Amino acid sequence: MSIDVEAQLSDLKQKVENMQPGGEPKLSMIVFSGELDKLLAAMIIATGARAMGVQVVQFFTFWGTAALREPSVNVGGKDFMSKMFGWMLPKGRNKLKLSNMHMAGMGTAMMKDLMRKKNAPSLDQLFEIAAQLGVQIKVCEMSMDLMGFKREEMIEYPNLEFCGVATFLAEAKESSIQLFI
Q: What domain of life does the UniProt record list for this protein's source (predicted)?
């Protein structure tokens, strides 16, 4: 029985190539949390990866969508539940609380002060850097609908897209790194 080593080697090479994502490396990240420290981590990872030449796609869903609300925009025409969610959830990224040691707002203020003293970029600055670097933000339309948010009340961001989970999964399928924050 003769073994065709060349054919087996060629087949194995093809399988390895199919396993690796093509082109530029990609990071797909689900941003589920609506807490300050977790959003800071998501934005630091996103901007760091982008600075290293990695494509970055963030999928904001559920509590994470509140961080994308524009504080100065008020949208009418909402039902009772939508109004309640809008009232209870933070309006924008600068209203987010820490996940631990919030201490009635004192922990959040201390963290922001420490970041300023250590010259760490603020959340606003991280969003600006992300936009300049081309980090893509995709917002889950189903989560927005459940939370009662409308497109008009979301932030202006150059690479923002409203989509469903299938769009994110297609991105994640092509990614070498997937994260859930």
A: Bacteria
Residue 159, burial from CB neighbour count under 10 angstroms (0-12, 13-18, 19+): middle
pTM, to two decimals: 0.83
* Tokens representing residue 141 in the block: 């339309």
- Please name which of 24, 12, 17 lies closest in space to residue 177, comparing C-alpha atoms: 24
Q: Provide the CB-side half-sphere exposure for 20 (13 A, CA).
A: 10
CA distance 35 to 98: 5
DSSP 8-state symbol, 66: G
CA distance 140 to 125: 23
Domain ranges of the chain: 23-180
Secondary structure of residue 135 in the 3-state scheme: coil
Cα gap 34→64, rounded to integer Å: 4
Q: pLDDT tens digits for 109-147?
A: 899 999 999 999 999 999 999 999 999 999 999 999 999
**What does the pLDDT look like over 13-40, one tens digit per residue?**
776 666 555 568 999 999 999 999 999 9
Q: How far apart are CA 50 and CA 44, in angstroms?
A: 10
In whole angstroms, what is the distance from residue 148 CA to residue 78 CA? 7
